[in-house]
Amino acid sequence: MKFSISGKVMFIYSLVFITIIFLTFWLSYAGTVGRLEQDLKNTHIALLKQIDDKIEIVFRQTERDLLNMSQELEYVYFMYDSYDDAAQKYSNFFGLSNKLKTVVHTNELFTSIFLYSEVSGDILTDKTYMKRDVSEDNWLATYIKMKGHSKWLTTHKVWDGEKEQDVVTLIRSYPSISSPEYRKGLVAINISEDVLYRMIKDVYEEDHGGHTFIIDDQANIVTHDDSTQLYKNLSDISYIQQILSHNGSGHFTVKMEGIEQSIFYTASNYTGWRIVSVIPKSKVYQPLESTRSLMIAFAVGMVLLALTVLFYVNRRTFKPLDRLVGKMSGALKPVHPEHESMRSVVGLGYLETVFDQMFVDREQLEKQVRDSKPVLKWRIILDMLSGYRTEYASVRHHLEFTGIHLFSERFVVCTAEIGKEGGVSPKDETLYTYALCNVAEELMNMEHSGAAVDLGAGFAAIVFSFAEGDMEQNHLRALAVLELVLDVMKRQFGLQVTIGVGRCYQDMKDIPISYEESQKALQYKMVIGRHSVISIEDLGTDNQDYYRMIKMTDRIAEALKQTENEKLEGYITELFQEAVNGSLSPDLIKQLSYDLIMKSLQVVASVGINTEETLEEMGNLHQRIHQCDNWQDAQRIVKTILERLAGKIEGKRSQRGNNKTIDKLLPYIREHYRDSGFSLELLSEKFQLNPTYISKLFKEYTEKNFIDYLIEIRINASKELLVVKNRKINDIAERVGYTNTRSYLRAFKKYTGMTPTEYREWVLESEEKAASE
């Protein structure tokens, strides 16, 4: 069969066009289904991370609760085994046990609390008390030499005095910050394994068809939806070994018992545990079945429709060409010249119209591509920051198309925030951010490479790329360029620009890490101030400074109790200055402010002032501190609240008046405190008063317990005797009422922070220095 020219062209054009249709639908199918598969994987990993976040929040709150509990005076007596007699010891045990019960009953997460004194070997829980010689299983003692100050134990069985339970345990040393050789004991909080299992169950609202469990770094089961798996070790399973060899999150597929299983896992940065989900692969991708079927049916229908339209349009389009060729070759039959001329003009005119429309469409397509480049650039950079694009080779052509030039390695990510005195309107905010991105790219690309995009709300992300140099050198180069950016934006636009800078990393896959570090560094604008470049390298990360500053709050609480306003103001200023100079993070500065106010409220409560009314007057305290933009605002809130509390204490004391009974008791105590047998019972017999009544009077009018008041008098008296150089410590202890020198040494150290010998040397050195001057 002989084809005409139009027939051949139509056949070739149809073949090419149909091929393009098939390829387009195939790529659309592969892209859509592939992306949905990736989204399903990301969803499963996100659920595991949600479990990890819930566990970390609970565990961190537990650690804070444990730290707060261990600062009580009863804990000190128990850990140091510091008692004058057996009555005081068991009285302290009773009070401490009640506090432990209160903590356990008010927090449904806690199963039990254990206190272990290395000094006495005793164990006290919220349900029982075990002496050293009757404790059959002193499991806590094995952790007295543990590394670090705290440790999370995976699921184990613990007997709390009533029953044996499967628990996860947080152990913390006492004192809180102490090396193994100076530890006096341990404090432990037990959380039921069922609590961890419920956290997993709450995240998965319905049965997902698989198993989800948690293992520690030794492959021991921490919690499992199948309770029979507890206490098993899974290290001999190949896919568990693969999980333990990787950090972070991931996914892979294994075949078990002839069935393909999808393994999802994530590693906790806080505990180091792995959260694992094992789901049959068919269950994971079940939601895709309907999508696959629909896309295939749609593709087949579109191909059939395209074929029909294609043949019809092609035959109509190339018909004038057939006629033209027929005329030139004389192959067409003769027709009336006028009619034939008219038909040829109409056919060729239609063909010319088609070609003109093709050129117009091409120009419009080029314009759309040019207009879409900024959006494509924004999308690519955000994918790199979020970790969706991690291979340079796969993204290089997209970068070149949008005009971005990045090297294949050595990346630094920065997060910038714009601001202006008086604020910036949303409209101007977009323009200023656009100007910031342009300035940053212009300065970066003079010597290096990089790109900047608008993140919205006055924030921008800046990505540096370097051709050579080590990590530290490139980090310094980025800082130098950013200083120029700040100068230009201030000089030309009057803007305050604050920039957080992450570390330099070798590979593109680490860009999200640098981006997260830059956001963390930017938060330090609260400490360092606005219009500055803040590097993650310059930030302090040691929480030891925080615990040291927590200790500094003790003297603030004491100044508040004594209503010494000048000292109070000076101590607050010094505390915040120390926090800023120590590069304490904004979150820790806010936490320090909150803890200081809470400690001050305890002082107010000890005076007899209603703390609930005081808290209502302060408003939403947590929200006020959280919204502070800089450390000066936090200091101002703390200072205002503490001055108000000092005023309440003064008002309470002015209303109290005098009490004749207390006026008789205090001189008698100061006269007889040297008697080693002096006690609350003897005092009650002397004045024919109930011991409970005397204790209540002491608390109300001296704001101290009787025993604390007596110890304070004895310690102050011993200070005067210590000034005499040759006087023995044993004799001094006996003269102030201590028959046991060890008890005296312990009490003196507790109240002064020094041993009697150290105090004597300090006083004598001060006197010699004063005399020489």
Automatic annotation (TrEMBL):
Record's signal peptide: none
Keyword field contains Iron: no
SUPFAM superfamilies, A to Z: Homeodomain-like (SSF46689)
Organism this protein belongs to: Paenibacillus germinis
Residue ranges of the TM segments: 294-313
InterPro entries: CdaR_GGDEF (IPR041522), Homeodomain-like_sf (IPR009057), HTH_AraC (IPR018060), HTH_AraC-typ_CS (IPR018062), Tscrpt_reg_AraC-type_HTH (IPR020449)
Superkingdom of source: Bacteria
Alphabetical list of CDD domains matching this protein: PDC2_MCP_like
Occurrences of domain HTH araC/xylS-type (ranges): 663-762
The organism's taxonomic lineage, starting at the top: Bacteria, Bacillati, Bacillota, Bacilli, Bacillales
Name of protein: Helix-turn-helix domain-containing protein
Keywords: DNA-binding, Membrane, Transcription, Transcription regulation, Transmembrane, Transmembrane helix
